[in-house]
Amino acid sequence: MSSGSLTADRRFAYAQSLRDEGDWAAAADVMAQALDEAPQWAEGRFTLAEMLAGAGDTPNAIAAYQAYLALEPADSMGAGARLALLGATGTPAALPDAYVQRLFDQYAPRFDSALVEKLAYRAPGLLRTAILSATPERRFTRGFDLGCGTGLAGAAVRDLTDWLGGVDLSPAMVRVAAQKNIYDDLHSGGMLLAVKGLRAPCDLMLAADVLVYCGNLAPLFTAVGGAMVPGGVFAFTVQRGETGSFTLGAEQRFSHSCAYIAELAAASGFEILSLENAVTRQEKGLDVPGLIAVLSRAPE
After folding, report:
1. Of 157, 181, 263, 277, whose CB has the highest number of CB atoms within 10 Å?
2. 234, 222 in Cβ contact below 8 A?
3. What pLDDT, on a 0 to 100 scale, did the predictor assign at position 243?
């Protein structure tokens, strides 16, 4: 987070302490002074926007987020989502790849313990149970784990498939997963490109707690359908939305409705084997409503 200016860094540190004390307006004033010393500091612009938003100064917060995006269009800090939540733009189709990669590169060293111990994460086990329930005694030939992270979901299904590949945007997460020797093929990159680039069709694809970073799932459903054999299984979790198609929450995760999942399944050539309510994780000690879906690629 260094600006390259000692004066700006000192003012930034003071602004952070004011923010921690709950004085968001004073923090924003000091942060603006820091940016006088380092006007091209993208992360500083984002920090100013956060402080202005915390102070309730929405118009200036919007301007500061936009100034950040002018300096860093890749948006590794997620300003576009913040602008949507402030009502300055429409809901994005997905969160930026740069944001998701940065988030999980930072998270990788403590991901497993934080997710399981602090957030009561249980999506992999629930996915395994749902797959076994929907397809009793079935063994798969080729499986692929979308957004594999550190391999928690891959480990849960490894014994169900002869071959298992995985992809994740975060190189740091992939390095952790590689150490576990779960996957036959593993690399970092985007889900959509990875699915389109598969060398052979799969009969199992899974996505555990990754579709929450993508709102519009139609392109992915189409790609997955095109990369699966007839009768192949697509199993995934999402956060549950009650109305519409998808919505972006304050925690910068998307929720998807049952109706939207059913609509996409039908449009992409999938049959629904199961679509059930489930709690796959907690947020701030509260259960987060979710869905576990098991779909089957319809015969051609």
Report:
1. 157
2. no
3. 84
